[in-house]
């Protein structure tokens, strides 16, 4: 190995380090390699050191930065001396290794939520919500909406008697469903809503649920954000008249709920809401702003201006404080609201070629996030490099929604009516 | 000569005796004044060798000072001594210049000089013309009355010789009066020279001596006059005031002029360069014809040998091209006689004449202007963001050219109509087709109702106008719409309207159908959403009708139109104002005042195709079929404020943005142009129009048929003949 390296004009002494366990650990010895090797070369070197049965792609970090060019260029760009022994950390490459079987829907898949490792929730343009326990096997169908579902979320994924699911639809309502995961047999069960949340005057664009709480919030085309209670009893009392009417029309008891709080401030359609903390809601809107709301007071405490109509927002990353948002242009922007006095984005990722429809932070990693775009691509990003880690091009049409699942898979739905799951993504 | 001199001598001898006393007294007085000085002077003068002219000087001076009486006595004394001296000299001691007497003589002379006194005239005839004595033997009488005889006249030759011999002759002056020759001293000649120069006669007189101010200014206790200050010193002068008034009047009347009239130079170069003066005066850029080349040595009849080409050179000339060959080959001739006639003489002079006569000798004025500098200074495009520039979304589904699109007020949906007979509603956000209505005829025009809570769609196709329920409203809104669109009993229209339109229920889509007598070309909603104007290519009052949806009625306009209407607009702010565009003119009417015409805009276009009004209501954009677009500022003028010629083909539609300062035009050349069109609230400021972007993307087949701005975002929808709708975002 060492002898081979000396053939090249310029050689570098490197040491490979890793936080990975056996079988991906190489002995900590200094190796001489030519400086012209790229990431692929480094990966093959490590693979040959490891002598694995199946070659494994790796990514390499020098001083916390991913290598995306030849080693020599990288060192020149960063001004690192090639004289001393270089310590290169390697991690398993973040790329899907396996493509699951697509789950075909009747219409466009507009919403997906896979925050629970047990299920994947999908909302579809045919007005039905679906619960998938594994790729290709639909356990429940959530019915009742008269318009296309625009957003779906777990309201309570760990409930004792079942899972509560909230759906938002273009028929101006939200519906709450209770699903018992145990009862799912071979056939799919159809579930009706136990509660209908009415109050929006226009299509509901997005729904998000409070973690460890009983509330959901929704953003709508009527420029408002409503906060709703998912609890059964209180809502029953609050609207007895409507309840009766619901009883008459449908066979199973259906409740109607009204909004607890309405957060007013956006001047255009609220396209996405997230509820990352107990009483903090982040929302983005077509009025080009991202706002942070305090649920208790109903005031917005933060207002980030992006200049473009925004479609999606998510909060995560370091300290769960970074705000990522994408919208009517191909640039994914990440803000750090903790930075005082500036509203300029700290990161901008611009590899897409069309509107961004979804972006999600990885639940456990501080660095990773995904974005889905109307150009049919899903890109996995690492804050440590400006290039996408990998591009998933499984969809044939616009990707409308995407999410992480189980920490190692990407679930996405699109205008090709398919739910696709790319798994085997190793994020340390 | 000797006799006369003796006689004279006698006289002289007698004279001093009489006048001794006064002279002595004078002398003493003088000596008291400045005895020492005079001694010095005497000593000085003693050095002078030849000293004889005192008497002359005395006589000269006597002439000068005749009128002065004061010095008379003094003069007399001088005369005495001077005459003594003269007598002496004439007695023949002249040549010797005897020293012993000289001292005395000089003393006298000096005295006379210092006192500027003269010798009294020996001749006492007085101031009579001397001609009277011309023929006499004497020249006059002396003081005792004896005749003074003339001196013997010298022979001319002798006198000439004498003068030539005498080196001092130039200093001698003949005194006719006393009949004697006087020789000037050196001092006197200097004095005369100085007087001639205009200087002070005495060399030691200093004309620029410092002034001694004898008056004591400061320590005078008492004023020179004890009179009190007069009052006139304290009041403004009456006479000055009068003078000023006079001057002011004169200035007013123009009698006094301050600026001098410009003097025209009355001198000019008569024989100056003609061409140059022409150029200056007439600003003509005249070029004088070039002068003929003068003949050189080689054209001589006998040029030097070096001019004569050798045989090889001549041969090489033959090989050259005609135009490269030298015109003239020098040759030697033994004499001028042997030179033959120049064969080209006639031709060359003819050419020269032609050149003088025909060649235009005027410098062409070629203005060299950078075309960039002619462009108006416009703000940079970057500063005018946001505006639509790139296409991200396409709405596909139509199978024929999309003729018309319309945006819903919230910006969530757009509707489109196509020649394939379908009307579609799209979700803007995702590009999904939400609803399709299929008709048999090609859709001409679609229009959303402008009310946000009244989502119905008006669709024009063929002779029919449909009101379609989009079912996008809330339940209550839906109920209202359904009620409104239910046509239980057919409305009774008055006769005039019935001839044009007929209301019918539409069973298929549960809407209303209005059947017109002609094919519809354009529809437009009133901003309140109740009235809708429909345009048909009909003349006079039949071209435009207004339908009222709530009352299910149709009205004809009380307007007689000239020409076929093309499109109509309701004013966005003033309810009753209605704008109709015919093929060449745009007319504005007030419907509240029974269709009173307000304005007529002269577009100057061949055929208007579309128009759009600024949301402010004062500015109008008109697109034409020749690719021109006119911006009218209706407050400003009935003529276009700006004409934009950008499209090579017909403009199909123009549109304003509701809130951003943007407007756009689309054309059959498959492009859409986006402009910045800022209207200022300050009426003095003209609208600012800046072209921003050319949006390409539609295939060249069919062009772009319609363009509409998103109501809230700076985005533009374009409907193409290639059956695709594109959304251009900022």
From TrEMBL, chain A:
Keywords from the named record: Nucleus, Repeat, Ribosome biogenesis, rRNA processing, WD repeat
Source species, domain of life: Eukaryota
Signal sequence region: none
Main location: nucleus
Region entry Disordered, spans: 234-258
Residue span(s) of domain NLE: 12-75
WD repeats: 142-187, 197-238, 263-303, 349-385
Pfam families found in the cross-reference section: NLE, WD40
Cellular localisation: Nucleus, Nucleolus; Nucleus, Nucleoplasm
Record-stated family: Belongs to the WD repeat WDR12/YTM1 family.
Job description of the protein: Required for maturation of ribosomal RNAs and formation of the large ribosomal subunit.
Name of the protein described by the UniProt record: Ribosome biogenesis protein WDR12 homolog
Naturally occurring in which organism (per UniProt): Brassica cretica (Mustard)
Lineage: Eukaryota, Viridiplantae, Streptophyta, Embryophyta, Tracheophyta
UniProtKB/TrEMBL annotation, chain B:
Alphabetically ordered keywords of this record: Nucleus, Repeat, Ribosome biogenesis, rRNA processing, WD repeat
Ranges of compositional bias, category Acidic residues: 36-53, 78-102
WD repeats: from-to residues: 395-436
Domain of life from the UniProt record: Eukaryota
Alphabetized Gene3D superfamilies for the sequence: YVTN repeat-like/Quinoprotein amine dehydrogenase
Domain BOP1 N-terminal: 133-388
SMART domains xrefs: BOP1NT (SM01035), WD40 (SM00320)
Pfam families according to UniProt: BOP1NT, WD40
Database matches in SUPFAM superfamilies: WD40 repeat-like
Compartments in which it is found: Nucleus, Nucleolus; Nucleus, Nucleoplasm
Predominant location category: nucleus
Keyword Repeat in annotation: yes
UniProt similarity note: Belongs to the WD repeat BOP1/ERB1 family.
Protein name as catalogued: Ribosome biogenesis protein BOP1 homolog
């Amino acid at each position: 190995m060492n002898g081979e390296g000396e053939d090249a004009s310029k050689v570098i002494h490197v040491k490979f380090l890793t936080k990975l366990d056996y079988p991906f650990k190489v002995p900590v010895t200094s190796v001489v390699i030519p400086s012209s090797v790229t990431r692929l070369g480094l990966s093959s070197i490590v693979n040959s050191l490891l002598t694995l049965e199946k070659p494994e792609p790796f990514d390499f970090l020098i001083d916390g930065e991913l290598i995306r060019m030849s080693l020599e260029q990288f060192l020149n760009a960063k001004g690192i001396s090639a004289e001393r022994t270089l310590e290169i950390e390697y991690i398993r490459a973040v790329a899907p290794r396996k493509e699951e079987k697509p789950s075909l829907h009747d219409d466009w898949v507009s919403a997906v939520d896979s925050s629970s490792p047990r299920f994947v929730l999908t909302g579809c343009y045919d007005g039905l919500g679906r619960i998938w326990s594994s790729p290709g096997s639909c356990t429940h169908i959530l019915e009742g909406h008269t318009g296309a579902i625009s957003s779906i979320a777990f309201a309570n994924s760990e409930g004792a008697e079942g899972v509560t699911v909230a759906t938002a639809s273009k028929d101006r309502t939200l519906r709450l469903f209770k699903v018992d995961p145990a009862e799912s047999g071979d056939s799919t069960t159809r579930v009706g809503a136990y509660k209908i949340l009415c109050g929006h005057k226009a299509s509901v664009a997005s729904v998000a649920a409070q973690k460890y709480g009983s509330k959901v919030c929704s953003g709508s085309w009527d420029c408002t954000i409503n906060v709703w209670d998912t609890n059964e009893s209180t809502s029953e009392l609050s609207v007895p008249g409507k309840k009766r009417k619901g009883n008459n029309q449908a066979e199973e008891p259906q409740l109607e709920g009204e909004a607890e709080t309405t957060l007013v401030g956006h001047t255009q359609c609220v396209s996405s809401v997230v509820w990352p903390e107990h009483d903090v809601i982040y929302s983005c809107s077509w009025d080009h702003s991202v706002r942070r709301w305090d649920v208790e007071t109903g005031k917005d405490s933060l207002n980030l201006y992006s200049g473009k109509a925004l479609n999606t927002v998510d909060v995560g990353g370091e300290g769960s404080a970074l705000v990522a948002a994408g919208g009517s242009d191909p640039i994914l922007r990440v803000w750090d609201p903790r930075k005082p006095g500036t509203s300029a984005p700290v990161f901008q990722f611009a590899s897409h070629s069309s509107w961004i429809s979804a972006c999600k932070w990885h639940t456990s990693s501080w660095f990773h996030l995904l974005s889905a775009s109307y150009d049919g691509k899903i890109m996995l990003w690492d804050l440590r490099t400006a290039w996408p880690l990998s591009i998933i091009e499984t969809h044939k049409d616009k990707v409308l929604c995407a999410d992480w699942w189980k920490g190692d898979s990407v679930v996405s739905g699109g205008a090709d009516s398919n739910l696709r799951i790319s798994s085997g993504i190793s994020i340390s | 000569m000797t006799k006369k001199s003796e006689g004279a001598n006698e006289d002289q001898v007698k004279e001093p005796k009489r006048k001794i006393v006064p002279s002595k007294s004078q002398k003493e007085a003088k000596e008291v004044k400045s005895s020492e000085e005079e001694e010095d002077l005497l000593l000085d003068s003693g050095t002078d060798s030849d000293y004889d002219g005192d008497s002359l000087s005395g006589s000269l001076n006597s002439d000068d000072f005749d009128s002065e009486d004061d010095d008379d006595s003094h003069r007399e004394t001088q005369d005495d001594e001077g005459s003594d001296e003269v007598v002496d000299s004439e007695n023949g001691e002249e040549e010797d210049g005897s020293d012993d007497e000289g001292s005395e003589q000089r003393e006298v002379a000096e005295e006379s000089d210092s006192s500027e006194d003269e010798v009294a005239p020996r001749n006492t005839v007085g101031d009579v013309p001397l001609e009277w004595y011309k023929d006499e033997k004497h020249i006059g009488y002396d003081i005792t009355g004896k005749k003074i005889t003339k001196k013997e006249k010298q022979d001319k030759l002798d006198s000439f010789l004498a003068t030539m011999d005498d080196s001092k002759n130039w200093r001698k002056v003949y005194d006719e009066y006393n009949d004697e020759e006087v020789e000037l001293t050196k001092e006197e000649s200097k004095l005369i020279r100085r007087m001639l120069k205009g200087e002070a006669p005495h060399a030691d007189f200093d004309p620029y001596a410092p002034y001694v101010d004898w008056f004591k200014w400061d320590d005078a206790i008492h004023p020179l006059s004890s009179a009190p200050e007069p009052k006139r010193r304290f009041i403004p002068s009456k006479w000055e005031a009068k003078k000023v008034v006079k001057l002011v009047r004169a200035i007013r009347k123009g009698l006094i002029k301050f600026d001098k009239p410009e003097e025209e130079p009355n001198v000019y170069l008569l024989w100056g360069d003609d061409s140059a003066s022409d150029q200056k005066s007439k600003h003509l850029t005249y070029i004088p014809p070039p002068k003929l080349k003068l003949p050189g040595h080689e054209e001589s009849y006998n040029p030097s040998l070096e001019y004569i080409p050798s045989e090889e050179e001549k041969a090489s000339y033959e090989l050259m091209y005609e135009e490269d060959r030298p015109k003239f080959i020098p040759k030697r001739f033994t004499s001028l006689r042997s030179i033959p006639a120049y064969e080209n003489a006639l031709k060359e002079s003819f050419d020269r004449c032609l050149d003088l006569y025909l060649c235009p000798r005027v410098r062409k004025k070629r203005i060299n202007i950078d075309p960039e500098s002619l462009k108006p200074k416009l703000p940079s495009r970057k500063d005018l963001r946001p505006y639509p520039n790139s296409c991200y979304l396409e709405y596909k589904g139509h199978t024929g050219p999309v003729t018309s699109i319309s945006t819903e007020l919230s910006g969530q949906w757009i509707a489109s109509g196509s020649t394939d007979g379908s009307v579609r509603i799209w979700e803007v956000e995702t590009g999904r087709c939400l609803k399709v209505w299929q008709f048999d005829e090609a859709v001409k025009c679609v229009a959303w109702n402008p009310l946000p809570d009244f989502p119905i769609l008006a669709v024009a196709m063929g002779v029919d106008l449909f009101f379609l329920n989009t079912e996008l409203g809330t339940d209550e809104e839906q109920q209202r719409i359904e009620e409104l669109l239910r046509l239980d009993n057919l409305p009774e229209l008055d006769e005039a309207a019935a001839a044009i339109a007929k209301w019918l229920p539409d069973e298929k889509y549960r809407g209303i159908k209005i059947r017109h007598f002609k094919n519809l070309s354009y529809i437009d909603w009133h901003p309140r959403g109740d009235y809708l104007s429909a345009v048909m290519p009909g003349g006079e009052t039949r071209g435009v009708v207004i339908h009222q949806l709530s009352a299910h009625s149709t009205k004809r306009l009380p307007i007689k139109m000239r020409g076929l209407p093309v499109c109509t607009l309701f004013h966005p702010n003033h309810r009753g104002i209605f704008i109709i565009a015919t093929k060449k003119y745009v007319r504005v009417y007030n419907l509240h005042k029974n269709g009173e015409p307000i304005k007529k805009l002269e577009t100057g276009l061949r055929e208007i195709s579309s128009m759009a009004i600024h949301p402010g209501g004062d500015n109008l954009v008109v697109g034409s079929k020749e690719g021109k677009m006119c911006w009218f500022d209706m407050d400003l003028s009935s003529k276009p404020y700006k004409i934009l010629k950008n499209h090579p083909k017909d403009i199909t539609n123009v549109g304003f943005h509701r809130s951003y300062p943007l407007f756009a035009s689309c054309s059959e050349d498959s492009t859409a142009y986006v402009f910045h069109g800022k209207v200022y609230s300050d009426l003095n400021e003209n609208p600012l129009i800046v072209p921003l972007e050319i949006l390409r993307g539609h295939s060249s087949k069919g062009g772009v048929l319609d363009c509409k701005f998103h109501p809230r975002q700076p985005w533009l929808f374009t409907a193409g003949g290639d059956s695709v709708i594109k959304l251009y975002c900022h």
